[in-house]
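tokens incoming
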């Protein structure tokens, strides 16, 4: 492995398309290996920009603007960090010899619920919830009736629960339709209607892949509210049968998508049955907990995978994370953190987002303990001691 110093002509150049909290940790790991980091996002002073060597503010959905920064910088690797990126630009960049992580087609498949669901369920034969795709209100109504209530309605392109709702009765279909249209983070031209899975629990199985090996992190349990994560813990206790099924699904999906990097494979578990839900071809928000539990966090593993370095790591301790979300608007967000939060076994990470809005994730609390359950209890308690002024 050849490594240099950032900004030298021979340094490895990494471009992050999306510069939020996950990208910031990736940038820090890349910097530690002497890589040069170019952070790109839709607004200035995004978290990863605060630690990158250079940054650009562009319209991430505009093909010319995305291609322009790539052509100008000629990075060795382009790492998509968000879902809402112009995909044609990635295909073109790849054709021009740029290494997109994990590859443009994998990004294309995973950014669109229709592509990834059809690929997973119909091509790879993975078990998923029943689903239908609709583009008119009438079709949505019929699909909900056919699948039977409750159902989950989601825009085909979105993330962090934006535009997503659980529909419990025919009367609620109209609200779900309107919400999907107004709150989608990508495109709500089409919606997916999914059978509601009454799972016992859900996990993220972080799976790292380089050209030679695939490694699995211990499963991460999590709790979601409104389609967005609020607590996660590692390791989630599960039966050997369920864990083996989870690994088998994860292996199939990452081999199917190909390329190098870390993948967050989202799975629902009911008894020993495991359902594939979706996958991020990049670090996962629920995986922030690995910053305190693993010798190599998901961010370090991502960079190692990108650079095709060995992926070995140790699970050091059980732990938990609590997302800190703002409850108000602020253009000069300031935290008030009770010193009690800073225990021997806990940390609070401020992402550094320049603006706070109700529901926006601004930081994360991490706790380790002998048992994940105990760490989770402490995380639930300590997160209440953080406020935005
Ligand atoms: N078919 C389903 N049955 C039961 N619960 C579901 C179903 N689909 C989604 N959920 C719940 O909603 C959460 C968010 O769904 P999903 O992961 O599809 O949305 P998302 O917007 O992509 O979120 P993120 O970007 O944070 O991963 C899931 O983690 C799960 O808790
Ligand atoms: N579930 C996906 C996820 O967690 N993505 C993370 O959130 C950022 C966007 O935050 P913002 O919406 O507050 O700008 C993204 O840049 C990424 O780091
Ligand atoms: Mg998800």
């Amino acid at each position: 492995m050849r490594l240099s110093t950032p900004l030298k002509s021979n340094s490895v150049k990494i471009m992050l398309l999306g510069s939020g909290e996950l990208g910031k940790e990736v940038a820090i790991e890349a910097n530690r290996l002497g890589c040069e980091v170019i952070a790109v996002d839709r607004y200035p002073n995004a978290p990863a920009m605060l630690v990158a060597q250079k940054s650009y503010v562009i319209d991430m959905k505009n093909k010319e603007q995305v291609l322009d920064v790539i052509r100008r910088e000629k990075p060795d690797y382009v790492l998509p960090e968000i879902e809402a990126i112009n995909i044609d630009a990635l295909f073109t960049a790849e054709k021009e010899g740029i290494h997109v992580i994990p590859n443009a087609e994998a990004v294309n498949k995973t950014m669109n619920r229709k592509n990834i669901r059809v690929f997973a369920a119909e091509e790879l034969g993975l078990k998923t919830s029943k689903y239908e795709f609709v583009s008119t209100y009438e079709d949505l109504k019929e699909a909900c009736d056919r699948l039977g209530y409750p159902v989950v309605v989601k825009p085909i392109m979105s993330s962090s629960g934006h535009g997503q709702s659980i529909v419990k009765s025919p009367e609620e279909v109209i609200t779900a339709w309107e919400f999907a249209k107004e709150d989608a983070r990508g495109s709500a031209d089409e919606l997916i209607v999914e059978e509601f899975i009454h799972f016992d629990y859900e996990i993220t199985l972080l799976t790292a892949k380089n050209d030679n090996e695939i490694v699995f992190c211990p499963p991460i349990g999590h709790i979601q509210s409104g389609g967005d994560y609020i607590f996660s813990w590692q390791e989630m206790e599960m039966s050997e049968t369920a864990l083996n099924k989870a690994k088998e699904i994860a292996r199939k999906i990452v081999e199917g998508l190909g390329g190098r990097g870390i993948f967050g494979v989202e799975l629902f578990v009911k008894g020993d049955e495991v359902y594939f839900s979706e996958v991020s071809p990049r670090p996962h928000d629920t995986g922030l907990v690995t910053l305190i539990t693993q010798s190599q966090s998901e961010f370090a593993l991502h960079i190692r995978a990108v650079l095709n370095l060995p992926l070995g790591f140790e699970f050091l301790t059980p732990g938990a994370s609590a997302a800190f979300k703002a409850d108000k608007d602020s253009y000069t967000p300031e935290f008030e953190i009770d010193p009690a939060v800073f225990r021997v076994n806990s940390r609070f990470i401020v992402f550094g987002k320049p603006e706070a809005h109700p529901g926006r994730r601004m930081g994360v609390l991490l706790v380790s303990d002998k048992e994940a359950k105990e760490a989770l209890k402490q995380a639930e308690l300590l997160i209440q001691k953080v406020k935005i002024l």
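note: The chain has a mean pLDDT of 96.
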